Amino acid sequence: MAESTEVRKLVYLVTGGCGFLGEHVVRMLLQREPRLSELRVFDLHLGPWLEELKTGPVQVTAIQGDVTEAHEVAAAVAGAHVVIHAAGLVDVFGRASPKTIHEVNVQGTKNVIEACVQTGTRFLVYTSSMEVVGPNIKGHPFYRGNEDTPYEAVHKHPYPCSKAQAERLVLEANGREVRGGLPLVTCALRPTGIYGEGHQIMRDFYHQGLRLGGRLFRAIPASVEHGRVYVGNVAWMHVLVARELERRAALVGGQVYFCYDESPYKSYEDFNMEFLGPCGLRLVETRLLAPYWLLMLLAFLNALLQWLLRPLLLYAPLLNPYTLAMANTTFTVSTDKAQRHFGYEPLFSWEDSRTRTIRWVRAMEGSAQ
Ligand SMILES: NC(=O)c1ccc[n+]([C@@H]2O[C@H](COP(=O)([O-])OP(=O)(O)OC[C@H]3O[C@@H](n4cnc5c(N)ncnc54)[C@H](O)[C@@H]3O)[C@@H](O)[C@H]2O)c1
Ligand SMILES: CC(C)[C@@H](O)CC[C@@H](C)[C@H]1CC[C@H]2[C@@H]3[C@H](O)C=C4C[C@@H](O)CC[C@]4(C)[C@H]3CC[C@]12C
């Protein structure tokens, strides 16, 4: 941890700083980056909780803005030493159009890169995703793979396509000359499925279970492993790599890093039950009730219903052909690249991550009663 006597001179910008991950990154920076003089939080939707952060030694500047608007991004980036670009449209449920997903995730990232080049900001950390790699459209498993594991990363869904395009733009921008003549240093972090306080999908599963009398019905075999990572450790990896980008530019610049921790390798549903079980929900085995062909039929019916109802209302259930295929394909990582390159070690143990997440779900339970 950097010395607390260090001079406060750095300006950081976090785009998407009011999102699930973004809020944890903002709070982690305020706790663990003593060189901060100003922290700019840029988001389409600012959270009221930002106000409570304005009483500390770091100037917290809330900026309501849209990453698809180049001038708004340039104004927010100007004068920043480091940009952590976490803003994005995370949609695999058909809520947003493919065009909008592309505009936010790809054009928005282009705007951030160009703003760094035009204003002279040299360090850019991009929040990419495991989905840049897979699971691919062929359902090929990726079992305990690393950044160099060969894998046919072919996608059709707008979200993984947009994340892959954006990541490529960020990595290709590494080394570009920025205003002032020095090179831009970029890297991309690929978290697996993030969980923890504020995870909307976990909230959706919890409320679905409450509606079904405390039961959730298994749709995925327990044997299918899905990588998960605690949000606090994802935030910590962002803070750490942002700190090391300058000192280790030659090694870290232009690199990608999977982001995971000691969270156990389990199926998506079994992993969720680590938190929902202690909060009173039960996972009902449905091997005989819901064969895979029936789940596929239900998923396609959901997609058809979504299309039919779209002129009237947004129908976006958890189960659709894409989410079923994703959940049904093993995708786990095992790598020490981030540890070797910039000393990443999870800040939160599995036990601590689990306890914190259960505490959060229980707090929801209190609000749901
Ligand atoms: N949640 C996960 O499991 C996961 C896993 C890997 C990577 N990621 C990536 O992490 C990042 C954050 O994801 P999250 O889960 O916190 O999602 P989130 O939706 O909670 O946060 C995204 C934030 O970006 C903001 N945003 C959206 N469009 C914007 C725009 N046009 N201009 C400015 N701000 C905009 C949203 O308001 C939100 O606050 C995303 O880039 C996502 O692809 C998420
Ligand atoms: C209804 C059942 C089939 C249920 O098991 C569906 C689960 C499904 C909603 C999730 C299964 C895998 C999740 C994705 C994965 O964790 C990685 C992701 C990448 C990240 O960048 C964004 C979130 C996500 C796409 C995540 C979304 C929910 C799942 C599809």
From TrEMBL:
GO terms for cellular component: endoplasmic reticulum membrane. Pathway: Steroid biosynthesis; Lipid metabolism; steroid biosynthesis. It catalyses: 7alpha,25-dihydroxycholesterol + NAD(+) = 7alpha,25-dihydroxy-4-cholesten-3-one + NADH + H(+); (24S)-7alpha-dihydroxycholesterol + NAD(+) = (24S)-7alpha,24-dihydroxycholest-4-en-3-one + NADH + H(+); (25R)-cholest-5-en-3beta,7alpha,26-triol + NAD(+) = (25R)-7alpha,26-dihydroxycholest-4-en-3-one + NADH + H(+); 7alpha-hydroxycholesterol + NAD(+) = 7alpha-hydroxycholest-4-en-3-one + NADH + H(+). Residues 13-285 form the 3-beta hydroxysteroid dehydrogenase/isomerase domain. GO terms for molecular function: cholest-5-ene-3-beta,7-alpha-diol 3-beta-dehydrogenase activity. It is a multi-pass membrane protein. GO terms for biological process: steroid biosynthetic process. Keywords: Endoplasmic reticulum, Lipid metabolism, Membrane, NAD, Oxidoreductase, Steroidogenesis, Transmembrane, Transmembrane helix. The chain crosses the membrane at residues 292-309. It comes from the Eukaryota. It is found in: Endoplasmic reticulum membrane. Its EC number is 1.1.1.181. PANTHER family: BIFUNCTIONAL POLYMYXIN RESISTANCE PROTEIN ARNA, SHORT CHAIN DEHYDROGENASE_REDUCTASE FAMILY 42E, MEMBER 2. Belongs to the 3-beta-HSD family. The 3-beta-HSD enzymatic system plays a crucial role in the biosynthesis of all classes of hormonal steroids. HSD VII is active against four 7-alpha-hydroxylated sterols. Does not metabolize several different C(19/21) steroids as substrates. Involved in bile acid synthesis. Plays a key role in cell positioning and movement in lymphoid tissues by mediating degradation of 7-alpha,25-dihydroxycholesterol (7-alpha,25-OHC): 7-alpha,25-OHC acts as a ligand for the G protein-coupled receptor GPR183/EBI2, a chemotactic receptor for a number of lymphoid cells. This is 3 beta-hydroxysteroid dehydrogenase type 7. It comes from Neomonachus schauinslandi. The gene is HSD3B7.
